[in-house]
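Thread: quick sanity check before group meeting

JM: Hey all, I'm pulling together slides for Thursday and realized we never actually wrote out the predicted structure for the chain we discussed last week. Dropping the sequence here so it's in one place. If anyone has concerns about the input, flag it before I start.
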Amino acid sequence: MVKPVESAAARRARSPPKELLEVDGPLGKVSMFLSRAVTVEQDLQAGRAVVKIEDPKVRKQREMWGTTRAYLQNHVIGVSEGHIAILSLIGVGYRATVEDTAETVAPEYPGQQFVNLKLGYSHPIELGVPKGVKASTPQPTRILLEGVEREVIYQFAAKIRMWRKPEPYKGKGIFVDGETIKLKAKKIK
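JM (edit): ok, ran it. Output follows.
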């Protein structure tokens, strides 16, 4: 067994531990790391959190200010209401099902579900649903993804969409949350 060797320079280059912020709600618990320059104060009387930075003149701190506020808002909405992504499969023969077992993919954790896509390829596509995401198919051409973490839901939606991106000539493909594309005219010689 080989142990990694740490150099003195690598020890000095490490950043100090960041503050861990946990958001708790009726649908679950989500945690996120805060940058060293960002602080979050909770105002109990107003019922909201206030995000502050050390120096508003430093560009990097201003960038992290907005990013932290957006992530915090997504986490609060996620643990209170939840996030939903609706995928529409548009094309002849495009179908989706959610199954408990898969033939081509091994489960990453016990009880994992799989989204089985039939998109015109010679084989079905089986994708494992990430932990914390609930997938369902109310119709054969619709996939409903629900969960607490918005980033995980939309990352999985992008992974599904990658198999058949919307194309501008026939308007076929996988569309996320009512996405539309402008159709192009045929090329005439």
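AS: nice. The longest strand covers residues 83-90. The chain has a mean pLDDT of 89.
JM: adding both to the slides.
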